[in-house]
Design brief:
Shape of chain A: globular
Number of strands of chain A: 10
CATH class of chain B: Mainly Beta
Largest interface: A-B, 17 and 14 residues
Strand content of chain A: 15-25%
Shape of chain B: elongated
Radius of gyration of chain A: 22 Å
CATH architecture of the domain at 25-88 in chain A: 3-Layer(aba) Sandwich
Number of domains of chain B: 1
Oligomer: heterodimer
Number of strands of chain B: 8
Radius of gyration of chain B: 18 Å
CATH topology of chain B: Umud Fragment, subunit A
Order of helices and strands of chain B: EHEEEEEEE
Largest sheet of chain A: 5 strands, mixed
Chain lengths: 334, 138
């Protein structure tokens, strides 16, 4: 590990990364205009009304899981006086736009990372007290838009993401108030010791289980691992993540408004499918929908992937899943 | 009912002459620079919401059916016309803050009673935003 500690050392830096993200964005957008629902269990359904895609704390407390099918959740909601909303993308888009416009007035180089997340910079020459400024961002968004945001601040985007992760944790909420600043090596190490690898930005489930077999389970384990060896074994993506954990900026941001790199059409079947013909016809209609989306954006593609899976919510039934991809050297226009 | 903001580019000149009675002179030389209704009514788009009034509690100040322009970023002071949430409902009232720091949500229509904010209901009452203007189509 020789020499690594030199990189860790926080030098006299003044520019930090900040990540602001809306807590339970879709649910908050819906409750903002329905104040009578405050404190009641609320969920937002996917665009085909099939599954729960967003939940507030109250619905989580009732044991409703992410992407649980609507028909299973409906009776629970009715019994507890809550409400399920459809996906109103006009409303979501409008509120997201407002959120980003507000942040563009509050932070430097604000970048629209997703519907409910914005990255940007804070400079301690201009805002000497990062915690205070983070709290100011939070209260401004609360006042101007009626939305609760979490604020994570760190030396790199990955560390800001980890700070944001910490800001969401209920058990620390009373201390953090939803604003976490990792501005010393001690604080970074404290957070990294507690974050499981799976929750780190850029670590997928495959990488995580491989890392776990190497006894790398926390952010600190990952940061202190052998960079060269990790690069050889996992590639440049993980190497960049490790560098970011050490305070070196290595990941470039992509604007979420940029052309998409993948188009996905997937649906939960309305009822249990047992014959090949039904499956085939629904696959072909999904493929058609994906092709329409691709053509609408005037794009080409190189890979087509088809996947099917049995209902994961019926763990007692036999389970099956399969993914097949065809990749071409040339781009297709479907 | 809450409306989404949509910008437009209409810019119409404003006649300086005030209309008290009769008709303005269409050939008036005193015509201002073109103004946009967006710019006139909406100074801060990201925190501005439009809400349609349903009810008579603020007549004659605000007629039924008017569209309120509400800016959430403005701090309400005494005599601000505000959109508030009381017991889960949106209402529009005049906020009056007394010297002893107690507050009243005052209806301009004398047939409606005022809402006094006290220890009992202050936790369920929220000032949602400040009304900066309203639009009423005739």
């Amino acid at each position: 590990m020789g020499g690594c500690h030199l990189i860790y050392k926080t030098t006299l830096m003044t520019v930090y990364w900040v990540l602001a993200d809306i807590n339970g964005a879709y649910v908050s957008f819906c409750t903002l205009f329905n104040p009578q629902l405050k404190g009641k269990p609320i969920g937002v359904l996917s665009s085909n009304q099939g599954n729960v895609i967003a939940r507030n704390q109250e619905i989580k407390n009732l044991g409703v899981k992410m992407s649980e099918p609507a028909f299973r959740v409906k009776p629970i909601i009715d019994k507890n006086d809550g409400q399920l909303f459809g996906s109103n993308f006009t409303l979501f888009g409008d509120m997201s736009q407002r959120f980003h416009e507000e942040l563009e007035m509050l932070i430097i180089n604000s970048s629209r990372y997703s519907v409910d997340e914005a990255f940007g910079n804070l400079d301690t020459n201009l805002m000497p007290d990062l915690k205070e400024y983070g709290t100011y961002i939070q209260s401004t968004i609360r006042k101007n838009l009626g939305l609760e945001v979490g604020i994570g601040i760190g030396r790199t985007k990955t560390l800001a993401k980890i700070a944001s992760w910490a800001s969401k944790l209920k058990k620390w909420k009373s201390t953090t108030n939803g604003v976490v600043v990792l501005d010393t090596l001690e604080k970074e190490t404290w957070a990294l010791q507690r974050i499981p690898v799976i929750d780190i930005w850029g670590c997928g489930s495959k990488t995580t289980s491989k890392l776990d077999r190497q006894a790398i389970s926390t952010g600190k384990d990952l940061r202190d691992s052998d960079l060269k060896a990790m690069q050889t074994m996992y590639g440049v993506t993980l190497e960049r993540t490790i560098l970011e954990l050490r305070g070196v900026n290595a990941i470039e941001l992509k604007n979420y408004n940029d052309p998409r790199e993948q188009i996905c059409v997937s649906r939960t079947m309305g009822s249990i499918v047992t014959d090949m013909n039904t499956l085939r016809s629904s696959l072909s209609s999904h493929a058609k929908e994906a092709a329409i989306k691709l053509r609408r954006q005037n794009f080409w593609c190189r890979t087509v992937t088809v996947f099917i899976a049995t209902n994961p919510f019926k763990p007692n039934d036999p389970q099956y899943q399969k993914t097949l991809s065809i990749e071409q050297i040339f781009y297709w226009k479907v | 009912m809450i409306h989404k903001l949509k910008t437009s580019s209409y810019r119409l000149p404003l006649l300086y002459q005030k209309v008290s009675a009769g008709f303005p002179n269409p050939c008036s030389e005193f015509i201002s620079k073109p103004i946009s209704l967006d710019e006139l009514l909406i100074t801060r788009p990201s925190s501005t919401f439009m809400i349609r009034v349903d009810g008579l509690s603020m007549t004659p100040t605000i007629p039924n059916g008017a569209i309120l322009i509400v800016d959430k970023s403005i701090n309400a002071t005494s005599n601000s016309i505000v959109v508030a949430i009381v017991d889960g409902d949106f209402i529009v009232k005049e906020l009056i803050i007394n010297k002893d720091k107690t507050a009243i949500l005052h209806s301009h229509n004398p047939e409606y009673i005022d809402i006094i904010i006290n220890e009992r209901n202050q936790d369920t009452t929220e000032i949602w935003g400040v009304v900066t203007s309203y639009i009423k189509q005739l």
